Amino acid sequence: QYCRMMRKRPAVLIVVVALLLAGCGYRPLYSSSAENQGVAAIMASVEIPEAETRVGQIIRNDLISAMRPGNDGAGDRYLLNITPVMKTTEVIDKKQPSTTRESVRLTVAYELIDQQTGQTIHSGKTFSQVSFDVVRQPFADTQAENNAMERAAHEVSGDIRMRIAAFFATRA
User: Fold this and answer.
1) What pLDDT digit, counting tens, does each position of 91-131 carry?
2) What is the pTM of this model?
3) C-alpha to C-alpha distance for 90 and 105, rounded to whole angstroms
């Protein structure tokens, strides 16, 4: 009889958790309903202007791919301005005398503007720090730094997308 009772416990636990979540007003971030168009639809109406730098272009492309898949840009209601600043610093690592460790720190300030009013409705700053090895081979060092810069850009774009989604979810 103990074994039968133990088999029913997971089912009972799932039902209890579902009831608790329903009672607290939990809803998925990207859900939509009849009265609410949903975060995904709102995010698709965010225009992101062309970037001036390579790292800015990577961030922009990631955001467009995630926020506006297949969208032609009709009906843009919001404008997202991003300002990336990248800095490379040397990290002292005495374990390998022929290799130096460097770090790329990418800081991005972003500003979400309502195009109907021209006012900033949300802004913030995020960063990513990624390290790489410098082995004193020009091509390898350039590739390692570019790879670190791209990894930092992908991390930052994901963070910006999540922050904007959370902002729109709290307004809905």
Assistant:
1) 766 666 667 888 899 999 999 999 999 999 999 999 999 98
2) 0.76
3) 11
